[in-house]
Each structure stands twice: as C-alpha cells, then as structure tokens.
Design brief:
The chain has 171 residues and is an all-alpha fold. Helices cover 53% and strands 0% of the residues. It contains 8 helices and no strands. It has helices at residues 9-15, 31-35, 38-41, 49-60, 79-94, 96-104, 114-138, 150-162. The radius of gyration is 20 Å and the shape is flat.
Length: 171
C-alpha cells in the first residue's frame, strides 16, 4: 500500500514537467477509489484513462462490457461518448478484410469483392433503417428519448440502432 509521501514514477515525471495518466487497477473496479482522489495523491493527473481505453476496446471488439452498473446510461446525454462508441462498434464490426480492401481499392469500388460490397451496404442499410425506426418510434416516449433535447434524441437513436446487432451497450 502506498503512503502519501512515497515517491512514485508519476510524481517524478510531473516534477520534470510531464503530464501523467493512470492505466491500471485504480481505474477499474471500485469507482469510488478513483473519485476519492487516491490516484491523484500519488501523482496521477487523470485516473479515467483506463476507463476510456477499456470502453474503446470493448466497443471496437463488440463485447459490450461496461465498467458501470448502469452500463452507459450515465453518458446518454454526452454525444462525444455516444458517437465515439457507435463509431468504434460499427468500424470494428466491418472487420479488417473489408478495411484493407476499401483502402487498397478506394477509387475503384466496382472492383470490391462481393463480401465487401454486401458488408458495407447491409451495415449502412441496417444502421440507417434502425436509426430512423427507433428514433421515430421512441421520439415522444418519456421513458426513452422523449425528455431529451433533439440532438440527443438523434444521437441516442443512432446509438440504439448500432448496439443490439453487435455490442450490447445500453444508454
């Protein structure tokens, strides 16, 4: 257990003018530990980097694991988080073979394989149809989108469209 007067790598780096962030045990598990300031007392400026990295990997890999008891509901009104998770889920769901082919033949879409064409078209169709359908059906529902501002309704509708097919996050 670290005492408040123990010298840590983070404290040494800060004294040399560097910024520090935490990736490790304080950012995972008991949320109260990070909020109590324990990482900051030992020289770490940002105890939430681990949480961001964890959710980025979880969304890109379509795992849908969240570190919060309410999943991502606490971030439902934060478009930056919602859109970042949605983009990671969609891009991760496309798969590396599609990415590579699109990159190699970006200017000649007619030469893409059937797999790439189907993946891109169906992803766009399902995402778009789900977005419109979920947003329209839930627009006035006070239990879901009804109480949100318009821009949050649109972002949450897109998020809700992407998650059931792949990741399983909820907000």
């Amino acid at each position: 257990s670290l005492r408040s007067n123990d010298v840590t790598v983070a404290k040494v780096l800060q004294s040399a003018g560097y910024k520090t962030a935490l990736i490790g045990k304080w950012g995972l598990g008991d949320v109260g530990v990070a909020e109590q300031g324990l990482p900051r007392r030992h020289g770490f400026e940002s105890p939430h980097v681990w949480r961001g990295a964890f959710h980025a990997v979880s969304s890109f890999n379509s795992a849908g694991f969240a570190l919060f008891s309410d999943n991502m509901i606490g971030y439902a009104l934060d478009p930056t988080i919602m859109l970042t998770l949605t983009a990671a889920v969609v891009l991760g769901g496309l798969g590396f073979p599609v990415w590579i082919e699109v990159q190699r033949r970006a200017r000649s879409a007619s030469r893409w394989s059937l797999h790439t064409k189907l993946t891109l078209v169906m992803t766009a169709a399902l995402l778009g149809a789900g977005w419109v359908l979920l947003t329209v059906l839930e627009w006035n529902n006070p239990e879901t989108l009804g109480s949100m501002p318009t821009h949050n309704k649109l972002v949450s509708g897109l998020f809700a469209s992407a998650m059931p097919r792949t990741a399983g996050f909820n907000a």
